[in-house]
Amino acid sequence: MVVPESGDKMYPPPADLQRDAHVPDFNSYLALYRKSLDDPEAFWKEVADDFFWKTPATGPMLQYNFDVTKGSVYVKCMEGARTNVCYNVLDRHVRDGSLGEKVAYYWEGNSPDNRETITYRQLLSRVCRCANVLKLMGVKKGDRVSIYLPMIPELVYTMLACARIGAIHSVVFAGFSSESLGERIADAQSAVLVTADGVFRGEKLINLKQIADEALQKCREKASRSVAKCLVVRHHALRIRAGAASNKLQTPWDPERDVWWDEAVAAAPDECEPEWLDAEEPLFILHTSGSTGKPKGVLHTTAGYLLYTSLTFKYVFDHHHDDVFWCTADIGWITGHSYITYGPLANGASSVLFEGTPVHPHVGRFWEIIEKYKVTKFYTAPTAIRLLMRYGGEPLQKYDLSSLRILGSVGEPINPEAWQWFHEAVGGGRCPVVDTFWQTETGGHVLTPLPAATPLKPGSATFPFFGVEPAVLNESGEELEGEAEGYLVFRRPWPGIMRSVYKNHERFENTYFKKFPGFYVTGDGCRRDKDGYYWITGRIDDMLNVSGHLMSTAEVEAALAEHPAVAEAAAVSRPHRVKGECLYCFVTLKERREFSRSLEDELKTLVREKIGPIATPDFIQNAPALPKTRSGKIMRRILRQIARNEEDLGDVSTLADPKVVELLISQRCQAAA
Ligand code: PRX
User: Fold this and answer.
1) By the 8 A CB rule, do 410 and 381 touch?
2) d(CA 33, CA 363)
3) Torsion angle of alpha carbons 549, 638, 500, 177, nearest 10°?
């Protein structure tokens, strides 16, 4: 058991969850964790034994070099083994006879009337048809396929079809602009693009094919190689609303290049032999933003990613056969890759695949879906929680959420107020909240509680997952012991860590391994408390130094968010003549709350009380909304520029709503101008 020395309030795991959990208590976690570090060979071998290997491994489970001064950085898992990820997540379940009729996905469209249930057997046959279509289009092992699709089943079919034939998928979030899509297609040098005619986002109809065509045009202008074929899904909802929607939607068409999905798959056989791949052959590329502005194509490979997403899913969500799992992320991000597609399917799980938004057609949509499918494990993001918190408890009360057993959070630090609301209002105080820290680069969870084993502290991602060995370093690269705050790094790889930046291994080494040779640098700051719990303090570039004190913007934001009038807050630094840097904070108020001088004073006092006088914000600006990326991340770069009175804010095209910026500029704190 953890012995709390800090005096922090802890939430012990619920006894009913412990009874049949895979890791039923803290001592079991510690024993398994020790084994994973002391004998990684035996630990990962046991995990691999659950999967099918066409050829067994001849090399060790993990080999690596993390030290740039000793040569090129590499990670290898199960050298010599040959397998196929699609075979392992589908055929293995269907051929064994056990799960063919089990539901793989409950698809729920943007409109509640659009839904479909897909079994493992159906999924396998549709994936095979798609794989055959791709092959007919000339796609071979190692070729790249870009995917620009909304959250419809065809997105999963295409990813798995690529995996089946050894093609490398590169999914691009369907909210990205033609510019961003074009840049990613060109970087991957894809042979084929899979997209859809259109999609409803809320009430808005978006002409995806037109955006895709613009992107392909840009690629042609820039890149040496162009996409040869474009496979186009006719969106279900558009077909249902044929009269209204298709009149509005003009689908641009190039008969030489474009092929309708439904016509192609109808003519394709529903069996397709899987391609057997080496353990280290690529599975996919997924672009993530880089500090230089150019996105990095994060490369994940076959065996290690399969083992890691499968194991994290099983343990972190304590998966059992009858569960209904729902991860609300979009598959355009790593969370969807690992915990909608690969992790759940590798475990034979039933998941909800949701296309819509949390507030359409009403603010109770999430709760309605939980009731409808009797969701047992619910995984979402703090930004969604804070959004829904603004509507209070009423929308929740209309629905039965008693099926829920475990809640999960991902993507950013969760402030204690949002954690409490999630825990109490959504989980009825019964369900542990697993705050999972990880990155596109890590492939799966790296710091996370295990729901039946780890006593929780709201806002802490708690402890490392199996095989993960964190360390906290100071600016000079010295390792800090015990209670400490500094750079979060990892000393050794786990099977799911990225292997390279696509076609740019040097950038991989420079970004993640150069600063502290021998360690993978996350780019996040963290604090380890007296009890050994890890607390992510935000990106290192979001750290600020006020009068010589290092502090994180996340802690200031959490303090502000505790005020009953505040729905969401973002803190950035602003240069200060005396203190070096000072805090400039943006606050979004809850509905029907008014911004006033006295509220501003209350907020400053609150932060001073929570963190200390050095953290007292110099500026607090009322922000009716915050500039966010389409994945819901606050763009602090823009807020920093507003706080610094900069006029040219650079590229704001990746924002979900660029108009927010003008509003914030016009309401900039006068004293800061
Ligand atoms: O800063 C951390 C934050 O999100 C970053 C990774 O972003 P991305 O690659 O887009 O992947 C997001 C989904 C895994 C991290 O470097 N982050 C992610 N999860 C958490 C988090 N920060 C605090 N707590 C988390 N649970």
Assistant:
1) yes
2) 41
3) 170
Closest CA to 348 of 97, 585, 627: 97
Q: What are phi and psi of 167, to 5 degrees?
A: -80, 155
For the segment 121-165, what is each residue's pLDDT rounded down to a tens digit? Answer: 999 999 999 999 999 999 999 999 999 999 999 999 999 999 999
pLDDT in tens, 402-456: 999 999 999 888 888 899 999 999 999 999 999 999 999 999 999 999 999 999 9
Q: Structure tokens of 300? A: 């994940």
Measured in angstroms, how far is the CA atom of residue 409 from the centroid of ligand 1?
A: 10
Is 627 within 8 Å of 655 (Cβ atoms)?
yes
Residue 582 bridge partners (DSSP): 574
- Read off the pLDDT of residues 7-59 as tens digits, 9 standing for 90 and up: 788 999 999 999 999 999 999 999 999 999 999 999 999 999 999 999 999 99
Measuring CA to CA, how many Å separate 215 from each of 133, 252, 581? 23, 13, 41
Distance CA(401)–CA(428), nearest Å, equals 8
Residue 293's pLDDT is what?
A: 46
Q: Which atom of ligand 1 is nearest to the CA of 329?
A: 13
Backbone angles phi, psi at 536, to 5 degrees: -75, 130
* Of 437, 460, 488, 630, best ligand 1 pocket probe by most atoms within 8 Å of the beta carbon: 437
Assess if CATH 3.40.980.10 describes domain 84-357.
Answer: no
Q: What are phi and psi of 305, to 5 degrees?
A: -65, -40
CATH class of the structural domain 15-82+436-539: mainly beta
- What dihedral angle (degrees, nearest 10) is formed by the CA atoms of 646, 647, 649, 653? 150
* Contact of 370 with 126, CB cutoff 8 Å: no
Residue segments in the chain with a per-residue pLDDT below the cut of 50: 242, 247, 293
Superfamily classification of domain 543-672: ANL, C-terminal domain (3.30.300.30)
- pTM for this predicted structure: 0.86
Domain boundaries, the chain: 15-82+436-539, 84-357, 543-672
* Measured CA angle at 314 (ends 313, 318), to 5 deg: 110
The residues lining ligand 1, judged by C-beta closer than 6 Å to any ligand atom, are 288, 334-335, 410-413, 435-440, 461, 522-524, 536, 539
Q: Give the integer Cα–Cα distance in Å for 666 and 261.
A: 47
Ordered DSSP codes for 237-250: HHHHTHHHHHHH--
Residue 583 Cα, ligand 1 centroid: separation in angstroms?
Answer: 23
Q: Ligand 1: distance of its center to the CA of 415 in Å?
A: 14
Outline where 153-206 has alpha helix (H): 153-165, 178-188
SS3 for 380? strand
